[in-house]
Amino acid sequence: MQDSLLPASHYDRIGGTDKIRRLVHRFYEIMDELPEAYGIRKLHAESLQGSEDKLFKFLSGWMGGPQLYVQEYGHPMLRRRHLPFPIGISERDQWLMCMDQALGEVVEDALLRRELSAAFAKVGDHMRNKAEH
């Protein structure tokens, strides 16, 4: 139960496990469907199920809910785990485009959508590892 003196976590505000699962599932559907997302889609395995499961578990903890990813895989070390994949401005923007569309379709609360979008943008910038001019 939430302490009434603490602000609600993003996990609670989004609606918990079911809503995060829906968000992640829709995110990967969009990535798989949009030609503009081909650059990041090709960085993933043919089946997106493993990626979907890991992102769900990561977001659960990242949003303030159960630390499912940490329990199974240890510290996320996001940047390090993504170093094998070339991530530049284009890849970051494609990922954010898919996530912003999924947020728009799944999350009713406009303020929460903006907060999550801004947080994802910060993480996306941190993930860049490709030298660009």
Q: How would you explain this protein's 3D organization?
A:
One of its GO terms (molecular function) is metal ion binding. This protein is mainly alpha-helical. It has one domain (10-127): Globins (Globin-like, Orthogonal Bundle). The chain is 66% helix and 0% strand. It contains 8 helices and no strands. It has helices at 10-14, 16-33, 38-41, 49-62, 68-73, 78-82, 89-106, 110-127. Helix 2 crosses helix 4 (49-62), helix 2 (16-33) packs across helix 7 and helix 7 (89-106) runs antiparallel to helix 8. The protein is globular and about 50 Å long. The N and C termini lie far apart (50 Å). The model has no long low-confidence stretch (mean pLDDT 94).
How are the SSEs placed, and which strands pair?
Layout (H helix, E strand, L loop, with lengths): L9 H5 L1 H18 L4 H4 L7 H14 L5 H6 L4 H5 L6 H18 L3 H18 L6
